[in-house]
Amino acid sequence: MKQSNKKLDALKDQGNRSLLRVYTLYRFALAGLILAMHHSGIANDILGSYRPELFSYTAIGYAVINTLTLIFFIRPSVTPNTAQIFFLVLVDICAITLLMHTSNGIQSGLGFLLLVCVAAGSLFISGQLALLLAAVASICVISTSIVRLLGEDSSNNTVFQAGLLGVLLFVTALAFQLLTRRLRRAQIDAESKAQRAAQLQQLNKHIIARMRTGIIVLDSDSHIQLINDAAKRLLGDEANQENLSQGSSLTSVPTLQNTYQHWREYPWIRPEVFQENNAGIEVQANFTYLTEGEEQQILIFLEDTRTLSQHAQLIKQESLSRLTGSIAHEIRNPLGAISHAAQLLEEDPQLGQQSRLMQIIKKQSDRVNQIIENVLQLSRQQPPKLQKLDIKAWLNDFIEDYRATHADQIVIDLNIEDHCQIQFDPSQLNQVVSNLLDNALRYSNEHNNCHWAGITLSTSQSTGRPYLDIEDKGPGVLPENTDKIFEPFFTTSHQGSGLGLYICRELCELNFATLNYHPRNGENGFFRIGFAHPDRLLPGQMQ
Fold first, then answer.
1. Which CATH architecture is the domain 213-303 placed in?
2. Could you identify which of 16, 210, 234, 440 might form a hypothetical disulfide with 472, taking C-beta atoms 3.0 to 4.6 angstroms apart as the criterion?
3. Are 506 and 313 in contact (CB under 8 A)?
4. 297 in helix, strand or coil?
5. Residues 236/253, Cβ–Cβ less than 8 Å
6. What count of other Cβ atoms lies within 10 Å of the Cβ of residue 303?
7. Contact status, residue 305 vs residue 284, Cβ threshold 8 Å
8. Which of 109, 127, 131 is nearest to 118 (CA)?
9. How far apart, in whole angstroms, are the C-alpha atoms of residue 316 and residue 368?
C-alpha cells in the first residue's frame, strides 16, 4: 500500500506540471478576455454594472497576477508545491468573487467560473484542502449575496441561488476528487502492467538466450525473427554463425531449410535427424505454428540428440540391468558345471586323442564366461560420478600406468593440447581408453608387427568441446561394418566377445560423451571420443 501511494504521489506531481501549465494559460486568457470586454464596452450592463471602478481595478490586478504566475509556472524547471497551488486557486476564488460582486452579483453568471477554480483545486490538491477551497468559494458566494441583500439592493434576494451554487461547488470538488483518484489509479495500473510486461519480456529473452534447446522463430517469408545462442551452436560453425541472426533467411542453413520444407508438405511425419556443422552433432528439429493467418510465425525447437539419447540410455540401463543380470546368472551356473566337468575329464589318463576336444570345451567355456562377465558389468553399471579432469595430466598418468602393466614393448604417440578440461567419471574413462588402446595395439601388431597407437587431444573451435582421437596401424574398418561395430556381440575376431566397443559407447553416453569411428580416405580411420563441454553440464548431471 505504501509503495502504491508513493507511485500515486509521483504520478500526481508529474501530472500536475502539465495540468498547471494549462490552467495558468486559462487564467491568463480569462483575465485578458474580461479586461478586454470591459474596456471595449461589451456587456457593460453585466460586467461592472454594480461598481465599475472596483471592477476595473480588480480586472487589471487579476490580469497582472495571472501574467506573473504564467511567466513563473510555465518554466519546465519549476515544480509547484501544494502551498503554491492552494494560494493560486485561492487568489482566483477571491478575484472572481470580487468581479462577480462588482457586476450583477450571482445573476451575472461570473459565479460559475468558481466551478472551474474548485475543479482545478481538486485536480491539483487532494483531501481536506480541496474541500476547504470549495468551502471558501461557497462562503464567498453566499457572503456576496448577503452583503447585497443587506446593502443597497435589498429587494434582490439571491441567497437561495448562492446556496445552490455553494452546494454545486462542493459536489464539483467531491466528484473531481473521486474522478481524479480513479484516473490516476487506472494510470498506475496501466503503467504497472506495462512495466510488468516489459520485465516478463526481458525475462523471456534471458530464458531463451540461456536455454540449451535451440529456438528459432520464422516469419511467413522464412526469415529469422528470433534465434538463441544454442540454435547457433547447433546449426553453424564459428564462421557460419555470423549468418545466423535476426532478419537472415533460413536458406543459409540448407539442411534445416530442407527439413522445414518437408514438414510443411508432410506435417504429420516426424522430421528426420540431420547434421549441419562439422562438429558431428546430430540435431532433431520440431516445428509448430506460433501464429496463424497471413502473418503466420513458425516456432522451431532444435534438440541435440545426444541429450535425448543420454536420457534414453539411463532409462534403458535401469530396465535392462535386472534382465541381463538374471540371464547371465542363469547361464553361468550350467556353464560352471560344464567347465568343471571338462577339467575333470582332462585329468583322465585314458582320454587320449579326445584331449583336444576337452581343450576346445575349456577355451569356449572361458570365452562364454568372459561374455557373461561383460554383461554383468554392464548390468551393474552405476551412474557416473562426473569430475572435472585436466585431461593432459590424466592421460600422462594413465599412459605411465598402462605401460607398466604391459610387458611388450609398446609405442604410444601423444599429441595433446594444454589446459584442456573434461567432465567424466575417472574409472569409466580408464575403462574406455584402455579398451580402445588394447584394440589399437592388437590390430597394429597383427598387421604391421608393431605395438603402436596414437592419441590426439584437441578442442573444437566452434563448439568448445574436447575430442580424444585414438588410431592404430591396422587395416581399418570395412565401410559395410562401420555402423555395426558398436552393436553388441558383433566381432570380426575369433578371440573377442563383441561387447568391448558396445560397452565403451554405453559408458561414453552415460558420461554425456560420444564415441564414433571416423574413416579417412587412403588412411586408417580412428575412434573419436567427443566429450561434453566442461562448463555446460547441468548441476544435476554432475552429481
1. 2-Layer Sandwich (3.30)
2. 440
3. yes
4. strand
5. yes
6. 18
7. yes
8. 131
9. 24
CA distances from 400 to 428, 431, 481 (A): 18, 15, 33
Cell numbers placing 219: 516469419
CA–CA separation, 178 and 122 (whole Å): 9
Q: Which three cell numbers stand for residue 422?
A: 573434461
Tell me the one-letter amino acid at 122: S
What is the rounded distance in angstroms from the CA atom of residue 149 to the CA atom of residue 151?
A: 6
Q: How many residues does the chain have?
A: 543
Distance in Å from the first CA to the final CA of the chain = 45
Q: Which residue has the cell 578440461?
A: 421
Pairing of strands 410-416, 451-459: parallel
Judge residue 14's burial from the number of C-beta atoms within 10 Å of its C-beta, 0-12 exposed, 13-18 middle, 19 or more buried. exposed
Please, which contacts does 70-73 make with residues 24 or more away whose CB atoms are closer than 8 Å?
70/24, 70/25, 70/27, 70/28, 73/20, 73/21, 73/24
Report d(CA 47, CA 56) in Å as an integer.
9
pLDDT tens for each residue of 232-246: 888 865 555 566 777
Q: Is the pLDDT of residue 150 over 50?
A: yes
pTM exceeding 0.90: no
CA nearest to 274, candidates 266, 289, 264, 286? 286
CATH of domain 384-543: 3.30.565.10
- b/e sequence 175-199, b meaning 16+ C-beta within 10 Å: ebbeebeeebeebbeeeeeeeeeee
Rounded Cα gap, residues 1 and 52, in angstroms: 54
* Identity at 312, one-letter amino acid code: A
Distance CA(366)–CA(370), nearest Å, equals 6
**Domain spans, the chain:** 2-195, 213-303, 384-543
Q: Is the dihedral of CA 75, 78, 81, 84 positive or negative?
A: negative
Q: What is the H or E stretch that residue 470 is in? A: strand 466-471
C-alpha distances out from residue 208 to 2, 215, 219, 228, 290, Å: 35, 7, 18, 6, 15
Query: Which amino acid makes up residue 250?
Result: L
Which pLDDT tens digit goes with each residue over 394-431? 999 888 888 877 767 788 888 888 778 898 988 889 88
